[in-house]
Automatic annotation (TrEMBL):
Gene3D superfamilies assigned to the protein according to its UniProt record, in alphabetical order: Histone deacetylase domain
Organism listed in the record: Streptomyces albipurpureus
Coiled coil start-end: none
Domain of life: Bacteria
Phylogenetic lineage: Bacteria, Bacillati, Actinomycetota, Actinomycetes, Kitasatosporales
Keywords: Acetoin catabolism, Hydrolase
Pathway this chain belongs to: Ketone degradation; acetoin degradation
Chain residue ranges for the region called Disordered: 197-218
Protein name according to UniProt: Acetoin utilization protein AcuC
Residues annotated as domain Histone deacetylase: 22-317
Family: Belongs to the histone deacetylase family.
Length: 391
């Protein structure tokens, strides 16, 4: 064991760039790493740059014809094959797309390998979490599904139980699809209700494939407008019990920051402070149930690229480094200068939204008139009995 946790970073990941008008601006990655450095967290972890995922690794999840289509579109973007989801509004093709996508995937795979081999207890790749990509197609700003590839690599190395928890505002559909029939992988996704947000999946009734996969997926579809109290109540009403029952050897988590009330593409109303509470909870669950703390933490969505994403993921890095950032701290001026230089926007001044989230535990009672409680109960009734648990 190295005695230090890993942070995956290569400046070249900012080449994952769909263009100036696309909401997934790679500046969010550069600004996050800049804030990590401003707080000295790069000194508290081993910062590693992994090689790109090769074809044999990509084929753990993705079809060979799809990888070939990505390579072709990467070389000739105007000829991208939209049958594979490439060259669309969501996933415009760009020169070097394959290389940038494979590099991000390589960071997540290397993080998983390090955790499995006990080279690190925790490993973070905030550039990853591209959870919508399917085996045969791009979707939702995601070309290669690094989260699924990391899990598939863990299985290849001998893992028998891997839990995946996704708290992005969008359903983790690509990861669920990759392991739909595989009882070795438990996927749990908390997301905005599919009736009001892309990708339109993630209903409580989606509980895994027939046969051995039944009960291997859990989906909590939250009403639009859900804020801190409801989001935290929902998380703690579902996730800890399922993780305690499954007892994964490795916990993989996806921390899309787009649940935030400032995010322009979704409709939840979660604060930075509640996001940090869930990050801390995932860390604690890893230490309690995942072979002493085997935790791979990924980024994901997040389109308030200055005010929210860098702060949220810097908190995640600090938690994984066992050097949490004080929410009340004043953000270093050198980072705010970097923000202005890159974006001509003023950066946030503190690492908090000024909230102190509290929530009511599920055991304190169910309100049948509350839409949030209805959503939680629907999930518990759908998946808990399949795992031998009470709803």
């Amino acid at each position: 064991m190295s005695g230090r946790e890993w942070l995956m970073w290569d400046e070249a990941v900012t080449g994952y760039d769909f263009g100036d008008d696309h909401p997934m601006d790679p500046v969010r990655l550069a600004l996050t790493m800049g804030l990590v450095r401003a707080y000295g967290l790069d000194k508290a972890m081993d910062v590693r740059a992994a090689k790109s995922a090769g074809d044999s690794t990509l084929r753990l999840v993705h079809r060979e014809d799809y990888v070939a289509a990505v390579k072709a579109a990467s070389a000739h973007p105007r000829e991208a094959d939209q049958a594979y989801g490439l060259g669309t509004v969501d996933d415009p093709a760009f020169v070097g797309m394959h290389e940038a996508s494979a590099l991000i995937a390589g960071q997540s795979v290397a993080a998983a390998e390090a955790v499995w081999r006990a080279e690190a207890t925790h490993a973070v790749n905030f550039t990853g979490g591209l959870h919508h990509a399917m085996p045969g197609g791009a979707a939702g700003f995601c070309v290669y599904n690094d989260a699924s590839l990391a899990i598939a690599r863990l299985l290849e190395l001998g893992a028998e139980r891997v839990a995946y928890v996704d708290v992005d505002v969008h359903h983790g559909d690509g990861v669920q699809a990759a392991f739909w029939d595989d009882p070795r992988v438990l996927t749990i996704s908390l997301h905005e209700h599919p009736g009001s947000l892309f990708p339109g999946t993630g209903w409580p009734s989606e509980t895994g494939g027939d046969g051995p996969g039944e009960g291997s997926a859990a989906n909590l579809a939250l009403p639009a407008g859900t804020g801190d109290e409801g989001w935290l109540r929902a998380f703690h009403a579902v996730v800890p019990e399922l993780i305690a029952d499954f007892r994964p050897q490795v916990l993989v988590t996806q921390h899309g920051a787009d649940t935030h009330f400032e995010d322009p593409l979704a409709h939840l109303a979660v604060s930075l402070d509640a996001q940090r509470v869930v990050q801390e909870s995932c860390h604690a669950l890893a230490h309690e149930y995942a072979d002493g703390g085997r935790w791979v933490a990924l980024g994901g969505g997040g389109y308030a690229v200055v005010d929210v994403v860098p702060r949220s993921w810097t908190h995640l890095v600090g938690i994984a480094a066992h050097a949490p950032v004080d929410p009340e701290s004043i953000i270093p001026s050198e980072w705010r200068d970097e923000v202005y230089a890159r974006t001509r926007q003023p950066g946030p001044r503190r690492m908090t939204d000024g909230r102190k989230p509290v929530w009511r535990a599920w055991g304190e009672g169910y309100d049948p008139a509350d839409r949030l409680d209805q959503a939680v109960l629907a999930t518990r009734r759908s998946v808990f009995p399949l795992r031998g648990l009470l709803p």
